[in-house]
Design brief:
single chain; PCD_sf; 4 strands; four-stranded antiparallel sheet; Gyrase A, domain 2; 4-alpha-hydroxytetrahydrobiopterin dehydratase activity; alpha+beta; Pterin-4-alpha-carb_dehyd; 21% strand
Length: 117
């Protein structure tokens, strides 16, 4: 992954998303996932999501990272699932209102990657 590719998404701002907002197409998914290759598309309960696991040396560092993700979520008004475990944080982004992936999810995934830098 190039930092420039990730920055292309991370420099963008989430837009307000409503129930009738379009989900990303298969073509858009291929393009956008190429910009954040450490993220894995997952389908749960027929809902496409983006997921990534981050590893840390201990619980305290994982907790600090989870807090940073929470602050990002509030600033973007877009909220992921965050699973905090000893030495590990799993972040899952999807757009609840449309039941799938929107460009906002990719923007937030890219911004999440930058939190560890």
């Amino acid at each position: 992954m190039t930092v420039q590719s990730n920055n292309k998404l991370a420099s963008q701002v989430c837009e307000a998303c409503h129930v009738d907002a379009p989900k990303v197409s298969d073509e858009e998914l291929k393009e956008l996932i190429g910009l954040i290759p450490d993220w894995v598309p997952q389908v749960r309960d027929n809902v496409m999501m983006l997921e990534r696991e981050y590893k840390f040396k201990n619980y305290k560092l994982a907790w600090a990272f989870a807090n940073k993700v929470s602050e990002l979520a509030e600033s973007e008004f877009h909220h992921p699932s965050i699973l905090l475990e000893w030495g590990k944080v799993t972040v899952t982004w999807w757009t609840h209102s449309i039941g799938g992936l929107h460009k906002n999810d990719f923007i937030c995934a890219a911004k999440t990657d930058q939190l560890g830098d």
